[in-house]
């Protein structure tokens, strides 16, 4: 029987100054990839360095979690940015994190846009912003992995560009039938029950299925599964998801150790 590999990622390092968000120290031992905030929506230089050190302590691969420049709004407010501006924002943020990684003797595994940017590049019909993300990834090096919403427009666009892509599923978010995520403004969009999140993760990884809010089972192919660090009870959810994946026979490893090249 072929081995089922899966990566487990969480957004990390989103504290800033005296403001603390998440339970990074509790969560980090149970994941394989950390999406580290780069200062635009959360994080600061000191948090970035500490988060990189914590990840390396637990053998966790590090990726950049760049955002629109919206520290006050936590990167969840729509902004009018051009493709050229977006490329520069991504270069600036990934470059900052990469320097902390270089200083620690390692390199960047992946990049995953944060918050409303993730939604904007998925929903824009012209795909100019997603193309800009793909171009930014190519400038950063052929080994860099982009995390993209599984079966989405952004995923398809950057794959066509020859970028190395990991299709992402979410354990703690509800899905619409078109595989878009249910808006956070709608009740039930967040899955806070650890067992339910674990069951959803296992089905995605082993069966290639997810149950949408309308009750339909939808096909989905994922290489990485996300749990949000700011979901209520996140440490319990992450532990439950990791344990369930391993119990189901999945090998949970960082993407760089098994994902094919572009």
Number of domains: 1
The SSE string, one letter per element, is EHEHEHEHHEHEHEEEHE
- Give the distance, in angstroms, between the N- and C-terminal Cα atoms: 25 Å
Structural class: alpha/beta
Mean pLDDT value: 95
CATH class: Alpha Beta
Uncertain runs are none
| CATH homologous superfamily grouping | Glycoside hydrolase/deacetylase
Fraction of residues in H or I helices: 25-40%
Order of strands across the main sheet: 1-2-3-4-5-6-9
Beta-strand fraction estimate: 15-25%
E-strand count: 10
Largest sheet: 7 strands, parallel, barrel
Which terms would index this structure?
two-stranded antiparallel sheet; 262 residues; 10 strands; 36% helix; alpha/beta; TIM Barrel; 18% strand; 7-stranded parallel β-barrel
Brief summary:
With 262 residues, the protein is α/β, with parallel strands linked by helices. Helix content is 36%, strand content 18%. It has helices at 24-27, 45-57, 83-103, 115-123, 128-140, 153-160, 194-206, 234-247, and strands spanning 4-12, 33-37, 61-65, 110-111, 145-149, 164-170, 209-211, 217-219, 224-227, 250-252.
């Amino acid at each position: 029987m072929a081995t089922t590999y899966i990566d487990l990622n969480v957004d990390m390092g989103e504290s800033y100054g005296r403001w603390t968000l998440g339970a990074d120290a509790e969560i980090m031992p149970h994941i394989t990839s950390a999406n580290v905030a780069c200062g635009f929506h959360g994080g600061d230089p000191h948090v970035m360095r500490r988060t990189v050190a914590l990840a390396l302590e637990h053998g966790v691969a590090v990726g950049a979690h760049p955002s629109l420049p919206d520290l006050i709004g936590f990167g969840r407010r729509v902004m009018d940015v051009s493709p050229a501006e977006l490329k520069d924002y991504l270069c600036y943020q990934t470059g900052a994190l990469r320097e902390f990684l270089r200083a620690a003797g390692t390199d960047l595994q992946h990049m995953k846009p944060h918050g409303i940017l993730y939604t904007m590049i998925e929903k824009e019909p012209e795909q100019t912003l997603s193309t800009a993300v793909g171009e930014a990834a190519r400038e950063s090096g052929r080994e860099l992995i982009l995390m993209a919403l599984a079966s989405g427009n952004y995923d398809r666009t950057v794959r066509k560009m020859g970028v190395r892509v990991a299709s992402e599923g979410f354990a703690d978010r509800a899905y619409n039938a078109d595989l878009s995520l249910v808006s956070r403004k709608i009740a039930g969009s967040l899955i806070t029950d650890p067992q339910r999140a674990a069951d959803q993760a296992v089905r995605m990884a082993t069966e290639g299925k997810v149950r949408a809010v309308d009750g339909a089972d939808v096909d989905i192919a994922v290489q990485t599964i996300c749990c949000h660090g700011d979901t209520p009870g996140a440490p319990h959810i992450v532990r439950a998801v990791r344990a369930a994946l391993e119990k189901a026979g999945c090998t949970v490893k960082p993407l760089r150790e098994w994902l094919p090249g572009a």
